[in-house]
Amino acid sequence: MFAISTMSASVQGIFFLIAVALFVAAGFSITPGKKNLIGFGLAFFVFVFMWNAFAAA
To answer: pTM of the predicted model, to two decimals?
Structure first.
């Protein structure tokens, strides 16, 4: 249906690493501009699964 392929392992690792960094920064209350880092971390974490699900469809 969609003309995309699954995400490579290295790109997935980058997205997960960014998500973990955002979760750790949120845990230590490092808030640049008072943005919700937990939401950004969750978005990076879920994006990998969403992309691969669309690629499988």
So the answer is: 0.81
